[in-house]
Design goal:
- This protein has 5 helices and no strands.
- The chain is mainly alpha-helical.
- The protein has a single domain, classed as Four Helix Bundle (Hemerythrin (Met), subunit A).
- Helix 2 crosses helix 4 and helix 4 runs antiparallel to helix 5.
- Keywords: Membrane, Transmembrane, Transmembrane helix.
- This is DUF4293 family protein.
- It holds the Pfam family DUF4293.
- InterPro entries: DUF4293.
């Protein structure tokens, strides 16, 4: 159902992805002269957000919901890869790159929330299966 715990995790993952657009890592990615890194980061996070929101409303079929969350996690990993690439192209992690590292951490936290959502969807599916066995 929509009020389940995995819905909160998916909403939090989406909100974290939105906040990445307001961090310096996104600005640095968009400053790329060829612009493919910035476009790749923006599009992968946008697709992950759309898939998260879509999977929230697929609560009737939990197996399909897990599939959509896995797809969103794939795009989240791609976005995380773009963030890591931008972070290391700036010269690694130093005392002057804390803001960029924070943006990368937000993408990683979104991935963690997606994994937690998958875990709780699986728990719901196991609960429903066990109740069907009792009947």
């Amino acid at each position: 159902m929509i009020q389940r715990l995995q819905t909160l995790f998916l909403i939090l993952a989406t909100l974290l992805n939105v906040t990445v657009y307001f961090t310096p890592i996104y600005e640095k990615a968009m400053d790329d002269p060829q612009a493919w890194i910035g476009i790749g980061l923006a599009s992968s996070l946008l697709i992950a957000m759309a898939l998260n929101i879509t999977s929230i409303f697929l609560y009737n079929n939990r197996n399909t919901q897990i599939t959509w969350v896995k797809r969103a996690a794939l795009f989240q990993v791609i976005g995380f890869g773009f963030c890591i690439g931008v972070l290391f192209s700036l010269g690694g992690i130093g005392t002057y790159l804390w803001d960029e590292a924070l943006g990368t951490g937000l993408v990683f936290a979104g991935l963690i929330f997606q994994i937690l959502a998958m875990r709780f969807i699986r728990k719901d599916e196991e609960l429903v299966r066990s109740m069907d066995r009792i009947r």
